[in-house]
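worker-3 :: picked Coiled-coil domain-containing protein SCD2
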Amino acid sequence: MEFNVRLLSYVMNLICNKKRMRISLTRLEEERCEEAEARVRELEKQVAALGEGVSLEAKLLSRKEAALRQREAALKDAKQNKDEVDKEIASLRSELENTKDDTAAVLQQLRAADSEVKALRSMTQRMILTQKEMEEVVLKRCWLARYWGLAAKYGICVDVAVSKYEYWSSLAPLPFEVVISAGQKAKEECWEKGDDDNEKRSKLLVDINDLTGEGNIESMLSVEMGLKELAASKVEDAIVLALAQQRRANSLRVSISDIKSPGDPKFMEAFELSPEESEDVLFKEAWLTYFWRRAKAHGIEEHIAKERLEFWISRSGHSPSSHDAVDVEQGLMELRKLGIEHRLWEASRRI
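worker-3 :: tokens ->
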């Protein structure tokens, strides 16, 4: 728009200069005519002095008439040039109007493009995971890597276990350490923030960026499909059974049906777990601590979230027993029954 204004100003100045030139030429012609008239008068005087009389006056009148005609022709030329300038101005004004219309059309296209870019940017942002969502992806990869690894170790689903373990362990090479770190971090956040429900966006003690370079929604969909496949294959239950059978060589007090039963563990005598079982209990306790911490921060199941978080925090830091094994299995069942992980995902997507 500024360019158009400058152009119009330039054209107007050009027209004014042309007008001034025409006026100057006209004045010059007038001056020449006046000089001619003066010469005519001088000649008239000379003729009068010489007695040439009327014939000389007629000649002078003829010359004067010619000069007047010449002046008239010059004025006509000036008028014709003025008309041409007026036409040029009208043409420039028309061109300026067309330019304005074109500019308005371009601006409208730019606004439409800007709206489209904003819509695409918003869609793209929803395709990118937040920090907490990426933490969840990493933890679930750790879950898959750990349990497919145990499946391969104990000969469960032998046709796919090794390949699944190799795939998920390539994405989560330190599953136990990462989940334990997540539980510890959730515990520390609870101590630091007290009853504050605003979730602290901090990294795990093990930097998840060192474990994966992906941050899009496809990562989350991939782990969810992996977890469904793991559940459909009943790998986790088979691993609990395998760990219990391994322990039976030293203790036959309680069967796996007792461990998985919903009964109160207080009615059973506690016994020491094998190192593998203890590690599994610690892994699941950290898992439950992490997800109940996030549930509390998002206000999900507010009436029990704080109690559950404090319960799992209180269980950390001591050697697990058979009662703890029962508790973590019941805790995982409760977490899934309440749909905590799915509700956390929905809450995170609304942010």
